[in-house]
Amino acid sequence: MLIYNQTFDIYHCAFRILLSLSVLPEKEYPIGFIRLIDFYVLFPHMVSEVRLPAKYKSLKSRLKSSQNSYNDIPSPKRLFNDLYNIQIQCINFLSSLGLIDRVKVIEKKILKSNTDIPSDIAELIENEISNNETLIQIINSLCEIPYGGTNGLKSRTGLMEYRYDVD
Fold this sequence. Notes:
The chain is an all-alpha fold. The protein is 54% helix and 2% strand. The protein has one domain (6-157). It has helices spanning 10-23, 31-42, 57-66, 76-82, 84-96, 102-106, 119-131, 133-143, 153-157, and strands at residues 29-30, 109-110.
């Protein structure tokens, strides 16, 4: 029996990254930041495990209450690391299509380009944005947290090394 899993689907990853870039303010982001956002778009219930600032307590509790035993991930850090190759391939794919800036990718950053997203994909993204308010809140709340440092997103998630970051 063949079972589809969106976790390691490069096209689903492309959709998630384009969705995230459509919601985030237009600026350049470190690739690691986009990888973290992608992980939490893929597994929104896992945000309940992140040390979020107090102002996001209601979001965190709402996500914790929606969690069920079928969503459990044995090792989030391992899964996050396993996603690395798919995410990097996807970023290179989006870069080759001109949807993100190629020069910035070489600099290990992501910047959405001025190239229009194909209309059918743009429509799917708009539907997801309008129908999934919680997901948009997750992206926006994670965006407000600095990326690096001892109190940054890397530290708060526990998914990436942060001890050697320059604050």
